[in-house]
Every structure is written in structure tokens, then in C-alpha cells.
Specification:
The protein has 5 helices and 5 strands, in the order E-H-H-E-H-E-H-E-E-H. By secondary structure, it is α/β, with parallel strands linked by helices.
């Protein structure tokens, strides 16, 4: 089973920016935990971070015929990117949207996700655990589909 993990804009600054909201874990810490859990689950991960919408879209496109599913934290693109939404639809892979914070308890403009309607689910509000919960959910979903 192969899963693509995508981190959107500004997540490279985790552990340094707004630690009251996002915590002190760095993106490397999150990736290390994901890789540890993936090894336990016998899952292969490819992890990619970009501040560029076009690079994230290119990675989504590259997932076609290679990956079984996608975990994405689109960050601010959650609320703005129809292009990322359309890319997820185009590859037709099960996708889980994750967020470190609960986007529905933050500023009103963050309450809408263009991405969630094209995903099998969304995990938000559990800080770095949102990623591991998303991984567990996606692996379980794929196993139930007998996809792998």
C-alpha cells in the first residue's frame, strides 16, 4: 500500500510559527511519526511539502496509477483552491484532509473547505495527531475496499 502525504503552505514553519495554535512539533517531527506508524502498518509513504499551489497539484497528478490514497493538509489553500479540489477529483483516489487546528472554531473565512467535499473524510483539531489519525483512517478505508 502506497500513500502520498502532502503538506501545504507555511507548514515548513511548524514549531516556529503560532505555537499557541499549532504546537511546538516541527514538520520533521510529524513526518517522523508518520513514517514510524507507516512502518508498523506496512505502508509505504511519500511525503512532500510545498508553499506552491502548482507544485501541490503536480504531486497530486503524479499520484495517479502509483499511489492508493492521499493525505493532504492543504493549509490556507483549503479555503481558496478550486484547482487543488479539481486535481483530487481528477486522480480519483481516496483522500483524507487533515488540519492541525479545528478550522470550524477559527475565523469565519476558515470555516469553508473546498477540499473536504472531494475527500472521504476530514480530521481536524488534534494538532500533529490529526495526521496519524488520518493515516489510520485511510489505511482502514483502503483495506475495507480490498484495494490492496
Amino acid at each position: 500500500m502506497k500513500i502520498l502525504v502532502l503538506h501545504g503552505p507555511n507548514l515548513n514553519l511548524l514549531g516556529k510559527r503560532e505555537t499557541d495554535k499549532y504546537g511546538i512539533k516541527t514538520l520533521d517531527d510529524i513526518n517522523n511519526e508518520l513514517n514510524r506508524m507507516a512502518a508498523e502498518l506496512d505502508v509505504e509513504l511519500e511525503i512532500f511539502q510545498s508553499n506552491s499551489e502548482s507544485e501541490l497539484i503536480t504531486e497530486i497528478h503524479s499520484a495517479l496509477d502509483i499511489f492508493d490514497g492521499i493525505i493532504i493538509n492543504p493549509a490556507a489553500y483549503t479555503h481558496t483552491s478550486i484547482a487543488i479540489r479539481d486535481a483530487i477529483l481528477a486522480v480519483n483516489l481516496p483522500c483524507v484532509e487533515v488540519h492541525l487546528t479545528n478550522i470550524y472554531t477559527r475565523e469565519n473565512f476558515r470555516h469553508h473547505s473546498y477540499i473536504a467535499p472531494v475527500c472521504i473524510g476530514q480530521v481536524s483539531g488534534f494538532r500533529e495527531d490529526s495526521y496519524t489519525l488520518g493515516l489510520l483512517a485511510l489505511v482502514d478505508y483502503l483495506k475495507k475496499l480490498n484495494k490492496v
